[in-house]
Amino acid sequence: MVAVSPTAPRIATPPVSALARGVADLLAPHPLGASTSIAVRDARTGVELLAVDADRLVPPASNTKLLTAIAALRVLGSEHRFTTRLVADTVPGADGVIRGDLRIVGGGDPSLASADLRALVDEATTEYGLHEVTGRVRTDDTYLDRTRWAPAWIPDTRLRDARALGALAVADDIDGARIDPAAMPAPDEHVGRVTGELLTRASVRVRGDKPGRPAVSPVTPVTLATHESAPLAEIVQFMLRRSNSTTAELLTRHIGRALTGAGTTAAGAAAITEQLHADSPGVRLLDGSGLALEDRVTTRAMARVLADAAREPVVGAALVSALAVAGESGTIAKRMVDSPAAGRVRAKTGTLSDTSALAGLVDRADGRQLAFSINMYPIASDQRGAARGLQDAIAGVLATVDLEA
Fold it and tell me: Which of 155, 222, 239, 404 has its CA 20 to 30 A from that of 9?
């Protein structure tokens, strides 16, 4: 159990508002009160309404995914789609034979599934009457960095909280069954194997050896079939509501590639961190999912980024649609069910062994929208339930308190 001083936290900005009093009344008697940092802003004006220890550096946990989502929407655009291609060394002949290799070229689609590979094979075999490949099935995942994990992740995080990363990866087998990440080979190797099996089922003979990574093609490849993902806004919704770390890390690498040409975790995390610097020069992000234990933000910076994003027409609309809704969906579907916050709080949770966080937006009955960030750190693992209860109570105050009093 982490020892926590019962001393009431310092309240600031403004010190005597009804909002400040309401939150202080919750924190003062609570055993986690002194471990709590809070920042609240009016999302429409950007004005800070409440700050409780808001400049303290804290682990953001999965609240990091909010920052990744906002950066991805800004850099790539809400309608961006990720492309996976099936290409050949040569145009298939009239006899349905590809003379050379068949390649699956990954574009870093976080949502790619074996059903999409099946659609690629079906499109190519139907269009060209394929029945033979004289070469091999090869994979190309060079669009993004091929490092399989975020470098800052500790070994226990790998496979338990995410699958191996790559620009060409699926999480299921040929029949759509999800597979154990620990049993999966390198992501592109798995895709090559699945594609080979799909070709066999489609009565396409592959004469080459087992699937492999690309050799340099002697010619400009010919695209036989293309799969495009859902729009980025839908992928961001999946990431935030499911708290999917693999999606967050791939988007981080896409951000890095788009801005610097380097599709690495480091390049993307640096770009995401840049959003926070105006308020808090001490912040540090080493990944895009929040699994890196040395990530640090402040609630003041987090609330500011959320408020700024909410005011951007396209990014704000996509963010509102993507966030889980209290009492209704995502990781807060069973929280705040009988609270004034139900249906009004849209938020992302964050949990590590010593951290519990909640951040997002509140759509109030008076038409005002608030951006907020709540972080409890440090806490003991057996205090998580109490932390969530306190977060929910604070969210109820944000939804109902008279902001003019």
Answer: 404
Which CATH number applies to 83-229?
A: 3.50.80.20
3-state secondary structure of 74: helix
CATH 3.40.710.10 domain locations along the chain: 11-78+233-400
pLDDT at 6: 42
What residue spans in the chain does CATH classification 3.50.80.20 cover?
83-229
CA distance 300 to 15: 16
Of 170, 161, 180, 166, which is closest to residue 65 (Cα–Cα)? 161
- pLDDT tens-digit map of 187-211: 999 999 999 999 999 999 999 876 6
List of E strands, 143-212: 205-206
Higher pLDDT, 216 or 387: 387
- What fold characterizes domain 11-78+233-400? Beta-lactamase (3.40.710)
Nearest to 373 by CA among 387, 391, 388, 397: 391
Q: Poorest-confidence range of 97-111, 211-225, 266-280, 281-295?
A: 211-225
- CB–CB of 310/322 below 8 Å? no
- pLDDT band at residue 3 under the 50/70/90 scheme: very low
β 205-206/132-133 pair status: parallel
Q: Residues 6 or more apart from 138 whose CB is under 8 A from it?
A: 101, 102, 103, 104, 192, 211, 212, 213, 214, 215
